[in-house]
Amino acid sequence: MIAVALVIIAVEVALKSDTSGMPAAFGQATSSAGLRGVFAFSGQLSKTSYGIFMVDVDAMTIWIYEYLPQKGCLRLAAARTWRYDRYLEDYNGCGPPPDVIEQMIDEQRRYKLQASEGEVP
Predict the structure, then answer these.
(1) So where are the chain's domains?
(2) Which of 7, 18, 58, 107 is 20 to 30 A from 64, comparing alpha carbons?
(3) pLDDT given at position 104
């Protein structure tokens, strides 16, 4: 399982190169801030199954391969992009929705303002 992940990472690193045609060294500074590229790590999917989580920061995508020991292979378990998720204001969230929190904050600010205005200088 780890060997397959390393092969995928090695192929991805080999395919990505800078303008000079030489692959970028891991110690080189990137031209933009933040992490870039493809990251892979293993993890437990359920009580009895494990997988490899792959994250492509540039394409804003995550996908998961599940290892099937009885077949000795990997299966694509899930994939999705989070490109548009950041535009959601309230989706499948627990607790009070954002508009209720906004009202609470506004009330708190008004209360503090009234209390400070009532104080004698």
Answers:
(1) 2-118
(2) 18
(3) 92
